[in-house]
Amino acid sequence: MDESVEQLDGRRVRGDRTRRAILAKAVDLASVEGLEGLSIGGLASALGVSKSGLFAHFGSKLELQLATIDAAAELFEEAVWKPVAELDAGLPRLLGVTRSWLAYFHHDVFAGGCFFANAQHEFDSRPGPLRDRIAEQERRWTDTLIALVQAAQRRGHIRADIDPKQLAFEFDAAGTMGNLWWQLNGEERAFDYAGSAMRRSLESALTEAGRALLDDGS
Fold first, then answer.
1. Cβ partners under 8 Å of residue 106, min gap 6
2. Pick from 1-10, 23-32, 109-118, 127-136: least confident
3. 35-70 pLDDT tens trace
4. How far apart are CA 17 and CA 15, in angstroms?
5. CA–CA distance from 20 to each of 27, 40, 73, 75, 205 (Å)?
6. In contact, 38 and 44? CB cutoff 8 Å
7. All domains in the chain, ordered by first residue
8. Maximum mean pLDDT: which of 8-17, 34-43, 164-173, 178-187
9. How high is the pLDDT of residue 57?
10. What pLDDT is attached to residue 8?
11. What 3-state DSSP class applies to 206?
């Protein structure tokens, strides 16, 4: 490889690493102060760097905000999806995802609590590219929950007459409320309550094969 190409590749790697470090800080700041409170100047101050240095990575506040949403999505996937990637499809993976999701809330992956729960409240009635990007991430989450329920149905773990959207909604509602009780009230048993609510919804939807899996601790 030509030496100049090697040097260029090295600069790109360092640049990517720097950008990831910047966005990790941006995600934490936005989870506490809100996306609207995130600015290139404020982020530069928090990082102890110049504004001009950050402009090399993000040309505008909007670009920074959108990149921060995408970075938060990557962290969410790392915390929620990676731990269950090797689980069997169907009920085991559905259960694994709901458990890792509650653990993600409880372990405070972001400094200010769930980035997306906060951002949804901040932008749910404010049309524009930020709301669209946040809504896209929420759709990805709910669509995946629905797909997991459908996969469990195809494997005979959940009854065919169950509406996958309804069950996904009940799971989502329980987890979201658990997070609210945890963040707002410091309720220590918030995620126990959320897990119990999910289990009750699930138990009413299972086939005999699904019950056997659940009883085996899957």
1. 182, 191
2. 1-10
3. 999 888 888 888 888 888 787 788 888 999 999 999
4. 5
5. 10, 15, 13, 11, 42
6. no
7. 3-215 (1.10.357.10)
8. 164-173
9. 81
10. 32
11. strand
Side-chain-side CA neighbours of 64 within 13 Å: the count stands at 28
Which region holds residue 217: left if phi is over 0, alpha if psi is between -120 and 50, else beta?
A: left
User: Buried (b) or exposed (e) across 148-167, using 16+ Cβ within 10 A?
Assistant: bbbbbbebebbeeebebeeb
Nearest-5° angle of CA 141, CA 147, CA 150?
A: 150
Q: Taking the chain, what is the end-to-end CA distance rounded to the nearest angstrom?
A: 50
Which sign, positive or negative, has the C-alpha torsion 17, 20, 22, 28?
Answer: negative
Summarised one tens digit per residue, pLDDT across range 199-211 is 999 999 999 999 9
Residue showing tokens 């009920």: 91
Label each residue of 107-166 as H, E or C.
CCCCCCCCHHHHHHHHHCCCCCHHHHHHHHHHHHHHHHHHHHHHHHHHCCCECCCCCHHH
**CB-based contacts of 206: which residues, under 8 Å, 6+ apart?**
91, 157, 158, 159, 214
CB 97 within 8 A of CB 84: yes
pLDDT digits (tens, 9 = 90+) for 114-170: 899 999 999 999 999 999 999 999 999 999 999 999 999 999 999 999 999 999 999
Residue 104: how many CA atoms within 13 Å on its side-chain side? Answer: 24
* The model's pTM: 0.85
